[in-house]
Each structure stands twice: as structure tokens, then as C-alpha cells.
Amino acid sequence: MKSKRDTPSCAIGASVILLIMAGLAAVAASAQARAAPPVIRIEKPGQCVEPTAVMRRDHMKMILHQRDQTVHRGIRTSKHSLKNCIDCHASAKTNSVLGKDGFCESCHTYAAVQMDCFECHSPSPRPPASANSPVPTRSGIASESARRAAMAAPVAATRAGGAAP
Predict the structure, then answer these.
(1) What Rg do the C-alpha atoms of the chain give, in angstroms?
(2) Residue 106 and residue 39 in contact, taking contact as beta carbons nearer than 8 Å
(3) Cα 106 from Cα 40, distance rounded (Å)
(4) Which side of the chain, N or C, has fewer Cβ within a 10 Å radius?
(5) Is residue 33 a part of any domain in this protein?
């Protein structure tokens, strides 16, 4: 004969087993829904500026330090510059570090980390400057005097009665 105590124990045991099975099913489903592993291609052969493990762990610290050195102190070096990273890691196919298989975007998507570098910076390497071309700046004009002259040209043409270019 069954006692009243056995019935709740069986119900609790069955509930625990069902919960364990549901948990295992959820884990199996989440394993299938994970992000694809990052695509890591080094487009330019050779040694990186730091060992791979250091770059994976500290690249953002290096980029921020480089930014502070450049913006706040006027010290420009290329070893840890974002431009140097882009020059080596931009895809030969897309000429960018962004996109589904782009070096930067694929890792940041996998790690679920927001990347805001390219809201201001170009994700593509710039072609090497020729000996006759001016050094590019954010405005695209090398010197302050050249920038002022370029801005004044339309004003001078308008004052002289001509149309602005």
C-alpha cells in the first residue's frame, strides 16, 4: 500500500528530471545559435608589432594610448597606430577591415563588443602618397595656409562677380 508521503516525492523527482532535461535541451539549442568564430586573416605577411596573445588581450589599450599620445601630446608614431593596423589587416578582396569576414568586425561581432573606431576613421588603407602630393590631413589639405586659400577662393570669385566653383 502506498503512503501519502510517496506521492509528493515521486512528483518532485519527476519535476526535477523534467527540469534537467529542459535545461540540457536549452544548452544544446544555444550552442547551435552561437556566433560564427571570427575570420582571422593577416593580409600582409610578416610579424605583427606585438605577439598574437598580447594583441588579442591589449590591442584596444594600445590604440587608446596611441590616440592619447597623438591627440594630446602631438607625438605621432606608427607602431601601434590604427592606420598601421588597417594597412596590414584590410582584406585584399574588399580593401577593408569591416564586413562579415573583415578582420576587425568578425572578431568584435564574435566577442559582442561594439566598435566605434570607424565612425571617424576610414576602414580602408590609403594609397601611398606620391612625392608630389601633399600630406593628407582630416580636411584633405596639407597646410593651414592652403586650407584658408581653398576656402577663400569661392568668396573671392563671388566678390569679383564670377560664379563660385
Answers:
(1) 29
(2) yes
(3) 8
(4) N
(5) no
Looking from the CA of 58 toward its CB, the CA atoms found within 13 Å total 10
How many residues are listed for the chain in this entry? 165
Q: Which three cell numbers stand for residue 52?
A: 598574437
Return the C-alpha cell found at 37: 568564430
Instruction: Using alpha carbons only, give the angle 103, 109, 111 rounded to the nearest 5 degrees.
Output: 100
Whether the full predicted model's pTM is greater than 0.70, yes or no, is no
- Structural domain boundaries, residue 113: 52-128
Residue 145 pLDDT level (bands cut at 50, 70, 90):
low
Looking at per-residue pLDDT, the higher value among 43 and 70 belongs to: 70
* Residue in this structure with the C-alpha cell 559582442, named with its chain if needed: 112
CA distance 53 to 35: 21
Give dist(CA 106, CA 37) in Å, integer.
Answer: 8
Q: How many domains is the chain built from?
A: 2
| Grid cell at residue 74 | 602631438
Q: Which three three-digit cell numbers place residue 160? A: 569679383
Task: Output the pLDDT for position 61.
Answer: 93
